[in-house]
Design brief:
With 550 residues, the protein is an alpha+beta fold. The chain has 3 domains: 73 residues; 127 residues; 211 residues, Orthogonal Bundle (MetI-like fold). It has 17 helices and 12 strands. Strands 5, 6, 7, 8, 9 and 10 form a 6-stranded antiparallel β-sheet that branches. Strands 1-2-3-4 form a 4-stranded antiparallel β-sheet. A two-stranded antiparallel sheet has the order 11-12.
Length: 550
């Protein structure tokens, strides 16, 4: 045994076991996210049952089973559930009831001992609404301008084409509001700022004032036409309504303009469920959030994350590479350089929230305020760059990941054999030519490694971004059709902050749970996609320069 300990084998097994446990934990976490995330989009069956209340009254319950758990009967008795004293354990089920505007609550626990038999009526319909969450019930009749056009069994067949028409009208309305009217508002603001700028510079003339008035009048005329079309669409989209019967027998009228989607999960075949699943996943990726981010899609968050990472990469790569080249190739080796390297290593260990505070204080208030005073005085006191935005978030993350790029690039430069440098110098190349045409290209894969690590960290950061540009809900994307097309001053949404907001700040925690897993899944897939792209570029460069060196 003593000889075995001296041989070092126990440490090898200990290291191997630790690595194995770490891999199992990572894959277990990914499996949990995959199962919970992908399961969010599957159309689950809706049950119908009865429940005996404490007063002896029996009520009907319609809902979607979310989870079941077994508890001690004593804990349930303490909560007021009248279970027999001799009973040890009991099972309770969490059902999603929906109909928040009718019953006042989305989710409720029901003790299995007081539930009747479960059934799955085929006519139960689930409505995904733009407000108030999902609605569960049975379709009774379809209305057009208040008149009944379909009842009972024919309602479902008539509902689908009318719902498709309603959604098409709603998309046209949203396109006008966010696109055309948004563009007019942007141009009106530019007219106001141009007029204000002329007044501040003292260059305002009667001719220029008339030009501003004409531009404003032309834009107002365009707005009036769009507003008229918008009113017509709003009148059309309110035409149809659906009457639904809820679990307690009441009938509720819901306008089709408030419905996003409708399906009957108990009446769907496996192929139709697969089609529904794909469509729901697509809508989640490319849709816009609703209901305080607990409903709808996450496209603005995906877009903001990708744009921020790209801008960060553009900023951090040249600065990190140039700093590493100077420290490795040009700086005089000595105590000062050693202190700088130690500082760089220590900078990598600074908590990210500290970078956020620094970015808010220096980048936003100092640099942003100076930029506003110098280039955007006409917009003051409303800040342009003197407020958190995309550029400051990207710059803060670039500062956060700069040590990673510097260290990786330095390591790559140090691995270039001295014989390559000496051969280049022997052939008559200068030191600069040797560095930029021989050494740096060979170290490019190491630079890409640093960029990969920087992307992986930046895409998942949340704490500093809350201070320098990420918000719960951004009204517009940072890229649009208005000049200069890329608006670095705008605030953005981010997947990491979206997860934090939905998981910890949502008023409907149970409804947000599945969405948290789904968003986390998309964030993991996005990071993997960005990393794979960078790894592919790195491998291509490695093979290219390896072939050239051979």
């Amino acid at each position: 045994m003593k000889q075995w300990w001296k041989s070092g084998s126990p440490w090898i097994w200990l290291n191997g076991g630790a690595v194995s446990i770490s891999i199992i934990m990572v894959f277990g976490l990914l499996a949990l996210i995959l199962v919970r995330g992908f399961g969010h989009f599957w159309p689950h069956a809706v049950i119908s049952t009865t429940y005996m209340q404490a007063n002896g009254e029996q009520v009907r319950v319609i809902g979607e089973l979310r989870k079941s758990e077994t508890l001690t009967a004593q804990s349930l008795r303490e909560a007021g559930i009248p279970l027999p004293e001799e009973q040890r354990v009991a099972t309770r089920h969490l059902l999603k009831l929906g109909n928040r505007d009718v019953t006042g609550k989305d989710f409720t626990y029901f003790v299995a001992d007081f539930m009747g038999d479960w059934s799955y009526p085929r006519e139960i319909t689930v409505l995904e609404r733009r407000e108030w969450g999902d609605f569960y019930g049975e379709p009774v009749r379809l209305l057009q301008d208040g008149q009944t056009v379909a009842e009972r069994d024919v309602v479902w067949g008539e509902l689908q084409p009318r719902l498709k028409r309603s959604n098409a009208l709603f998309e046209e309305i949203r396109g006008i509001e966010r696109g055309a009217i948004g563009n007019i508002n942007f141009r009106l603001e530019r007219v106001r700022l141009d007029q204000r700028k002329a007044e501040l510079r003292g260059t305002m003339t009667p001719e220029l004032e008339r030009e501003f008035a004409q531009r404003r009048e032309s834009l107002n005329a365009e707005y009036a036409v769009l507003q008229q079309r918008l009113n017509e669409l709003l009148q059309e989209v309110r035409r149809d309504a659906l009457v639904m019967r809820v679990a307690d027998g009441r009938e509720v009228t819901i306008g089709l303009n408030a419905i996003v989607n409708a399906w009957q999960p108990n009446n769907m075949s496996i192929p139709s469920k697969v089609v529904f699943y794909v469509k729901s996943f697509y809508d989640f990726i490319f849709g816009y959030p609703r209901e305080a981010n607990t409903e709808g899609g996450i496209f603005p968050a995906i877009f903001g994350t990708v744009v921020m990472v790209l801008v960060m990469s553009i900023i951090v790569t040249p600065f990190g590479v140039l700093a590493a080249i100077y420290l490795r190739e040009y700086a005089r080796q000595g105590p000062l350089l050693k202190a700088i390297r130690i500082s760089v290593y220590n900078l990598a260990g600074v908590p990210s929230i500290v970078f956020g505070v620094f970015g808010l204080g220096f980048f936003v208030y100092v640099l942003g305020g100076a930029i506003d005073s110098a280039f955007y005085p006409e917009a003051l006191p409303a800040p342009t760059f003197g407020t958190p935005g995309l550029f400051w978030a990207s710059l803060t993350l670039a500062l956060l990941t700069l040590p990673v790029v510097i260290v990786s690039t330095e390591e790559g430069l140090s691995r270039i054999p001295s014989t390559i440098r000496q051969g280049s110098l022997a052939l008559g190349a200068t030191k600069g030519e040797t560095l930029w045409k021989v050494v740096v290209p060979l170290a490019t894969p190491a630079m890409m490694t640093g960029l990969i690590l920087a992307i992986a960290r930046a895409a998942g950061e949340v704490a500093p971004l809350m201070l320098v540009g990420v918000v719960k809900l951004a009204p517009t994307l940072p890229i649009d059709g208005n000049f200069p097309f890329i608006h670095l001053e705008r605030k953005i949404m981010h997947l990491g902050f979206h997860i934090y907001d939905v998981g910890f700040q949502s008023p409907h925690a149970e409804a947000a749970e599945a969405l948290v897993y789904a968003t986390a899944l998309i964030l993991v897939l996005l990071i993997v996609a960005l990393n794979l792209t960078a790894i592919t570029i790195r491998n291509h460069l490695r093979e290219k320069y390896r072939a050239e060196s051979d």
